[in-house]
Amino acid sequence: MQQLMAMQYAQHIDQVKSWDNYSDNTIFLQCYLRGSLQRVEYLQLKESVRVIQQNLRIMKRTREQRFQFLCLFDDCKTLQATIRTYFAVQKIKSHWYDQSTRTLQATIHSYLLHKKYSALKKHSLCLQACVRTRQCQLESLRTLRVCIKSNRTLPHDKHVDSTCCKQSYLTKRMKELRDEILSMWTKTWTAFNYRAKFWLVFNSPTYLNLSIHCEEFDRLKTLSEEMTKSPDKHKEQVARFEAERKELYRILKENTPPSVLLSFYSTLHIDIRSKHKKDQLLQLLFSSDMDPVVSATITLGISGSSPAHILDVTSQIELRRAERIRTNLMLTVQSSLQSLRALHRIATIQELTNKRHLQYIDHLRDELGLAQEVEKDLELEHAQLYHHHTDARDSIDHDHDVSFEHSSLSSRPVALPFPPPSPLPPLSSHDGLPVASSSSSSLAHKTPQQGDMLSLPSFAPHLPLSSDVDQYIVTQLRLQKRRKKYLSSRFATKKSLDNVFGGWYAAFTYTRIPSIQTNTGNTKAAPLGNKHENKEHNALKNEQADEKGDEKTHEPPNEKPTEQPTGQSNEQLNGQPTEQSNGQPNGQSNKQPNEQSNGQANENVQVNNPTNETDKEKENGNEAEKAKENEKEKENKSDGQIQQENATQGDQTVIAKTD
User: What does the radius of gyration of the chain's CA atoms come to, in whole angstroms?
Assistant: First the structure.
């Protein structure tokens, strides 16, 4: 059909004459093709429906037959399973019986085999251990021998290699220098005898010969420069060389045997029948074509007939060699002496440093022992004071409450009751202790006010007895003695002294008797009315003076002394209060500067007794400002000045206290 269509299409194409005929034929052909395609699709669809219907009928018939087959198969399978189950049960029973029998037999047999195997394994391990130990020993011995051999040969090989390297370097360097020296000898017209002796004597490649060759090269270089600059020097050198050559020619002509001359000619390959053989021989000596060793040998052979000349050259060469050896030895000895001096200096410095360190360690050990002793004494005294205070706690009268002000950084404020105040007579010296100024009469009439607190430690809320005061004084004296002993140490300074004794004084503030507080001019005393009170008052005055002395040691030396009124009116001495106006005391006032001269502390207690609280607050404010100014001045000073001033003032304070 396609061929028919193609033929028709070809005929139509032939008949087409124009574009319209062509388009009409194309449309006809398309319609024909589309109709053919639709007919083919319809036939295919019809065939597919027929096949599907046939397959459906076959599937229904197959499903019914399969159902019948499955029913028959299930029945057969049930029957077979029953029969197989019966046979399986019988088989399992027989299997269990056989397995139990075999297990029992295997257990008995395995026990016997395990016993034999254990013994065999034990013996095998012992044998293997012995064999392996022997093998390891042999291997270790072999390795050790190899290591020893290698360690023996390795240093030798290194030494041989280093020696070969050194020798090769020396040989190479010597060859270079000798070649340059040969050319320089020719330029500087050096004598043949000197060349020959130098060449044969310094022929071995050693460091000494290398240094001599270097010196010879430098000498020839300097000589060449001098000859270039000075014609006279050049003429002199040439004349000397020509004179030696003439002398050698004369020796060859007159003193040399013919046999020796023939040997010289044959060695230098000079024709015997030629003329001027002697001149040719002298021309060939130390030339670039000849071996220098042969030239040196011939030169020495020629000069052998004149022993004086050869002896002169030989002595010159030997002296040069000896001079070089002497110079090297002298430099070696000098460098050794310098190194020994340096080592001795370093050892001496190290020895001195070690000695200082040992002294400082001994000082620290003594300081630690002293600190431990003082701490033990303080602990013992604290315990004794605590027991005394607890015993005296119930014996003090609690009827009248009198409060005093006492500022202490290391204690807490506690309100203490005291008996009513009474006039206090002037104090006298007691037990060799210093006496404070008579300022307690004005303080004796100070009425107690509510809110006044006294700083005391927690274990001493009441005033101690006279025995406690004696013990406290003994403790203070002991501490001063230890402080003086500490100051006598070599390394002790005032700064280190303050660091060490700061903790001890802080500990003493807990046991300090709180009746007097010195603040650069203000002194407050407690009114005491019995016999023991006078003794306590004296002790407290001593403590106040010690504290004031400590404050003076910390003041800068250039500080101006403060002037405060110390005089008191007749009314105050009689126990009657005086009237004050504008914060100024009524009565005679004597100004006394607070100074230290010649290392002794002026421990006069200055007392100022204002009558109202406003004046008291003003004075406290002024004192606080002065203390701040003193601290600022101390900070502005350098550490070295403070250390020097503190050390000087500390020594003066200790001397004043001991006096």
Answer: 66
Secondary structure class of 41 (helix, strand, coil): helix
pLDDT 10s digits, 537-593: 555 555 555 555 544 444 444 444 444 433 444 433 344 433 333 444 343 434 343
Does residue 627 share a domain with residue 515?
A: yes
Tell me the pairing of strands 596-597 and 600-601. Answer: antiparallel
Place of tokens 């210093």: 434
Domain final residue pick, 270, 305, 340: 305
Where is 600: in which H helix or E strand?
strand 600-601
Q: Is position 337 within any domain?
A: no
Do residues 196 and 164 share a domain? no
Contact 402, 420 (CB under 8 A): yes
290 and 423 co-located in one domain: no
Q: Tell me: do 513 and 640 sit in the same domain.
A: yes
Going from the C-alpha of 570 to that of each of 288, 428, 522, 576, the distances in angstroms are: 131, 20, 20, 9
Rounded to the nearest angstrom, the gap between the alpha carbon of residue 285 and the centroid of all alpha carbons in its chain is: 71
- The C-alpha atoms of residue 189 and residue 177 are separated, in whole angstroms, by 18
Residue 569 lies in a domain: no
Is 349 among the domain residues?
no
Nearest of 374, 390, 599 to residue 476 by alpha carbon: 374
How far is residue 562's CA from residue 260's CA, in Å, rounded to a whole number? 121
pLDDT at 83 over 80: yes
Q: Report residue 638 as tokens.
A: 């350098």
Compute the distance between CA of residue 173 and CA of residue 472 in angstroms, rounded to an integer: 93
The phi, psi pair for 144, rounded to 5°, reads -65, -45
Same domain, 152 and 206: no
CB 185 within 8 A of CB 195: yes
Residue 300 has pLDDT above 50, yes or no: yes
Q: How many independent structural domains does the chain possess? A: 3
Neighbouring CB atoms inside 10 A of 467's CB total 13
pTM of the model: 0.34
Q: Which helix (H) or strand (E) holds 498?
A: helix 494-508
State which residues form the domain around 276. Answer: 189-305
Same domain flag for 204 and 156: no
68-81 pLDDT, tens per residue?
999 999 999 999 99
Question: Is residue 622 in some structural domain?
Answer: yes
CA distance 292 to 296: 6
User: What is the pLDDT, as a whole number, of residue 249?
Assistant: 85
Contact (Cβ atoms closer than 8 angstroms) between residue 521 and residue 606: yes
- pLDDT at residue 319 in the model: 72
| Boundary residue ending a domain (274, 305, 336) | 305
Let me know: does 566 contact 592? Beta carbons within 8 Å. Answer: yes
HEC string of 288-320 equals CCCCHHHHHHHHHHHHCCCHHHHHHHHHHHHHH
